[in-house]
Design brief:
Layout (H helix, E strand, L loop, with lengths): L27 H10 L3 H9 L4 H6 L2 H7 L4 H23 L2
Helix pairs in contact: 1-2, 4-5
């Protein structure tokens, strides 16, 4: 995965068979790998420590990311806005119709 300067990931490389993999199926290790690949190596351990799997990730609120993971505010904001929220939105789009 290619990191962009704002902490977002080039999603072209995340596609599996033309579709974004559903985070609901991710294990804790998959969540950690996702954030490491997104350039959040240090912060990825917080997801491991808190045992955040894909289903938990999809349930996280902004407040959970900003305060529940005990990570610095700057990276936490980027993680939520550029990763958690878009993953949640994509999951909802794919599972409601």
């Amino acid at each position: 995965m290619e990191n962009k300067t704002n902490g977002s990931v080039d999603t072209k490389n995340l596609l599996e068979n033309g579709q974004f993999p559903d985070p609901a199926d991710w294990a804790v290790a998959d969540v950690v790998d996702y954030f490491k690949a997104a350039g959040f190596e240090e912060q990825a351990t917080a997801f491991q420590d808190q045992e955040i799997d894909g289903k938990s990730l999809l349930l996280m609120t902004r407040n959970d990311v900003l305060t529940g993971l005990s990570i610095k505010l700057g990276p936490a904001l980027k993680i939520y806005e550029y990763h958690v929220k878009p993953l949640q939105t994509q999951h909802l789009k794919n599972n409601t119709s």
